[in-house]
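Repro:
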Amino acid sequence: MLDTNRSFKLFIIGVVLIFASLIPYYWGVHQVATSTVVRAALDIGSGATKLRVSEIDLKNNKIVRTLVNQQIAVPYQLSLSQSDDHRFDEEIMQEGIEAIQKLKKIAMDNQAEKIVGIATASFRKAQNGEAFVKRIFEETKVPVFIVDQELEGELGFYAVEATIPVDEERMIVWDIGGGSLQFTALDKEGNIVVYRGHEASIPFRQYVMQNIQGRDVKVYDTPNPLTLEDMSQAEKHARDLASRVDDVFKERLKDEESDIYGVGSIFSLGIEPLVRKSTFTVKELTEAVRPLAGKTDEELGGGDFADVQVTNALLVIGFMDELEIKEVTVVDVNAADGAFFIKRFWKPQEALIEEAQ
């Protein structure tokens, strides 16, 4: 009888231990299942509309994994710069809506729970930007938010934080878009501060064509081929633009303790493939771009962005030279990645519909 009781007690203890060992596993699975969501965001930039679909850890504000990273070229800023009344014309608006519809379908096919759009510089500048956003919602049911340049800089900062391990106090995020550029960092009190530049990829390209090459931008659609003298003058103009950066950022950018991260398509799809490495110096970028002198768009490989391939690199070189930036590390993120963590963008659908209207 004693042996029987003892065996029964041992059995009960064994069952309890088994269940106890399963508790951490159960709660771990349960937490993974409930603390992550799949979201989709569109970075409707000045030169392309970029889609990110990602699994997001909302508890820790981290991107667990990126499911879709795709873009469609839509030259909003170029169209705007050639407009007499500074408005989006019907052709570019239709092109933009079709791109959003295609990308939305991809997002939904990848089980995105919600999708929102973030519109930047060209929409801020266009006289009919707000009206176009309303039309986008009417035709695609994608709510689009026109963000100011301050928030645009913050989105890049959040995107880097959510993607890789960083030291917040040392990091500076450099975002070059089609129509604007930002440097973003934390100040001594831990607040985000943003330097806002207004001549980025397309305005810089237009300057090179008009003021250096003497070309009519309504007649010519590319600055290529550039001569070595053209390239030298373009770098000089970029250095002049960089000299206008706030003194606080100038000091931090040349500090060897600072970590400079380049974000956006200009860095990830333009600069990184050119230097063939994710962290580069100005010397390495200069050596990579010099052989591109005298090459046409076709000789550069063609595609939607061949016309800015060289001028974008020259813009970066000029800034790095003037600001004494030692090296830049490219992180493949954009405003869409940062938008995943802005709570007001992810309100219940009914609230978003009301705002969009």
